[in-house]
Write a structure and sequence with these properties.
Elements lengths: L3 H27 L1 E2 L5 E2 L1 H12 L1 H16 L12 H5 L3 H21 L3 H31 L4 H8 L1 H32 L1
Antiparallel strand pairs: 1-2
Amino acid sequence: METQATTQKFRTIDLAYIAVGAALIAICSWISIPLTVPFTLQTFAVFFILAALGGKRGTFSILVYILLGAIGVPVFAGFSSGIGVLLGNTGGYILGFLLSGIVYLVLTKLFGERLPVQIIALVLGLALCYAFGTAWFMVVYTKANGAVGLGTVLSWCVFPFILPDLVKLALALTIARRVQPMLSGVRKATA
């Protein structure tokens, strides 16, 4: 039987991992790779924390990251923050990270954390993030600037990012699988 001190210790560990996960997403959102279409390492961090910390802690890390940005802590890309960013054109993609976490949590809870399940969960989560973010972008952009076609939005917001996001997904999974043995004792104890 667990004592209250042991239970508290596990809660503290979970909170620490969630905080580190949120901080990692923030740091990676500030790193911009200047290519034809610049991109950040936000999605890498989302993939990594989900795979390394598990669906529950990873999803809470994403939620904490979004809440920090919403209250004004400059954690979003370009050191931006605030509700205005979340309600802006690309805010749906940031909120879509949370949907990615929920998909990962549900699928790994149902089917385990084997590599094929993790890959499918992360790819489906990314697709849902793209879909939600694109729909959000179309609504917000249309209100501000007039109608825009789906093909145009996809060419601006999705197509340039598919290949880099898949590379980030592969790297994140590779690194997370190397880190997991170091976290396995803690993950099992707090599951």
